[in-house]
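Students often ask why we bother predicting the structure of a whole assembly rather than each chain alone. The short answer is interfaces. A chain on its own may look different once its partners are present, and contacts between molecules only exist in the joint model. In this exercise we take two input lines together and write out one structure for the complete complex. Read the inputs first and try to guess which parts will touch.
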Amino acid sequence: MKNKLLWVGLVAATASLAQAAGADDTHLYWGDTHLHTSYSIDAYSTGNYVIDPDTAFRYARGLPILDPVSREKMRIERPLDFLVVSDHAELLQLQIRLEEEDPDLMATPTGKRLAEMQKQNRNAVFGQVGQIIQGQGKEMLVDLDSDKVRGNAWRRQVKMADDNNVPGKFTAMIGWEWSSAPDWSNLHRVIITPADGATAGKFLPYSSYISNKPEDLWAFLDRTTRETGAQFVAIPHNSNMSGGKMFDRVDSEGRPITAEYARERIRWESVMEIAQSKGTSETDPALSPNDEFAGFELRNKLLPGTPTPAQPGMFARSALLEGLQFEQSLGVNPYKFGFVGGTDSHTGLSSQQEYDFKGKLTNQLVTANRPTSRGAFPIWELSAAGLAGVWATENTRQGIFDSFRRKEVYGTSGPRIALRVFGGFGFKEADAKAMDIAAIGYKGGVPMGGDLAKAPKGQAPSLLIHASRDELSGNLDRIQVIKGWVDAKGEQHEKVYDVVGSGKRKPDANGHLPEVGNTVDVKTATYTNTIGAAQLAGVWKDPDFDPKLRAFYYVRVLEIPTPRHSLYDAVALNIDPATTNAPLTIQERAWSSPIWYTP
Amino acid sequence: MSAGLRRVLREPLVHFIAFGALIYLAWGLWGQRGDDDAHHIVVDRAALLQYLQYQAKAFEPGTFGEQLDAMAPAERQQLIDNFVREEVLYREAKALGLERGDYVMRLRLVQKMGFLLESTTDEKPTDAELQKYLDENAELYSVAPSWTFTHVFLDSTERGDAAARREAERILVTLNKVHAGFNDAPRYSDRFAFLQNYVERTPDYIESQFGQDFMQALAKLPVGTGLWQGPLHSDTGWHLVLLTAHTAGRAPKVDEIRDRLVDDLKRDRAAARQDQAIRALIDQYQVQFVDIPGHPEK
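Now the answer. The structure tokens for the assembled complex follow.
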């Protein structure tokens, strides 16, 4: 086994699946845009003392590193193609710098006090400063958050990214997290930039201590772009934990959204994170009662763990619908975004496999300790998710970034499901059988994230779709199209269509395929790929098309059921899986970015 | 004596404080005070350097020496004050025997001793040393075998397994008759879930996409015959294979993996030095066994 792992590092990471559809202009790259290291204050306080950004990049690249607990050599099973280390901008590197007795911190009373406290208990400092987010103890910032301290921290951060960036092979993208959480409603954004360290060194990462209003963040991005030339994309995440504030109808002051707000928002926020360790944000059964697969890895809670009812402002699908309406009333769609998945892991180890989930926090790394995992984020309640698939012309900072801009990206709940989606008006049934789907797709339509407009008379949009399974995960169950539209009376509608499924299953009267089955043996946490398909392809033509109405279409691909990470743990611990309080199996999935139709 | 006072005197905490006070009193009366060794603290460069390293939980005398030299006078004074304060409190606590029976303290000391013995050095291993290390750990660094091939795929899911096989056998004849080349496969192939061409791919990679049976069959095929071979069965259908190259697993040259070797060798050596140091310490002790099976009591 050890030998096998070493081999993997000697062959090319991935990108190969891209060729599944033949030679074309874009290749598929896999990565994580959301990862924390020991340089995030909450990661350190939960036991991550040693996996810094440099180690996190090295792990993602496929180099051996030392396990933070056992200090044995460890290595990622399959390297990533790109990674953003997105440490919290708020008190970036604080505990590490206290450990190092940073002279700029030790010269202040607060710095000296906290350094002393940390010597007694390594996890104690966060308890002192964690509340600053909510406005308490802000006076400490004078000592801890000076531009000099922040500048030193940021320069170290971007240097580690520069050191690990290998154009053409591995993209180490510079980024940070803006961690705004008014009243514990999660409004967090990860900000990424294709800039190098020299350019990024000209600004400081905008933190929620300066402002917790997204409007102010966008103003900073606008100003900084003009001053330094750096480009940015801000990626909202965990809208499921926002209590409805992430995709609201009002701005931060409670005033109705204006065209200007909508323009600024969509200028910066072209992509949102649909799945990660703290739950999915696609939709909820309460909002999508006719979607039988809607109840997937949900976690509708505020940051400290307070449950909230499902509201439209918490989910991508309802936001896409709201967006169509705003476009009608304001002329601009603030929620015209694509999807990615990310881990939000605080271990510095990007990990999203069910069978080898390393947890969200370092104190969850040891499986033997998991039955006692408590607090706001108990391990078995969390998801082993997610991942970003990017169709890009090259694996460089600019190449990957441009795909985020044009939304030719998609999210998965962890597995590397390859997914091509093109929208157009001329696709034929036979195109789904073609060897080179991309050649037909790019020529006859637009890729995911794109726009269709003004349908030719008598024609409806069609989607050309191809999906291949992850060679290390389950077969594919089905391909679905989710359509959303706003009718002439201004009412929102959504519908889920089964496009194609594995085997010889026949759709029922409503067009829905029966369940694919389940091969999971819960006693051994194993499954077989005797059901499902290695690949699925189809051309889907909108049967309910009205050329006068705005609409969006996105694709969802489901795997067959496989064991959930909590079941693997239960078998390893030899305990009754019911005691994990979690589903035994999971139908992993991929969500394409939408394609929009505008009359 | 009132009931309240009796209750107070039964409290373990009170006993503890009273006992502590007694010891302290005894120490004050009979303990030695003055310019003896127990009350003599030496602040020299070595002491400060060690103190600094314990604070940082890292042991690199060179780096910390520089840091010490670069300290402003006020900063240095602060360091000295902290050191003296800690040293005095430590000695007093030890004199009172507070460390005895404290398991956390015990673990902490063991850990610190471990750090101390873990010293790293700036040594640069020679090529000969690296080669020797590579030879000794050949299995760890072996480059996996690889295969280069293209394939024509006949999809059992679409065609049915028997029909796919028949079609494969039919196409095989054609391929070899027209001398179809490496880049001609797509014209004859159904669409495979993964790749058309596999260039220098390792067995675990091929196996993950085709299955174990296919990999085993592929490994038995003759290489570079210029002929299409098969059909080979995979998890999803039948494959005709044009196998152009195979490289056996091999040991890499030192230069290919130099950085990794240097890192690993240095880490191994540091661990060995630490182990040696600990064993040297153990040798200074007589270990007596009492009632441990397999260990005579002497």
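Check your guess against this: The radius of gyration of chain B is 37 Å.
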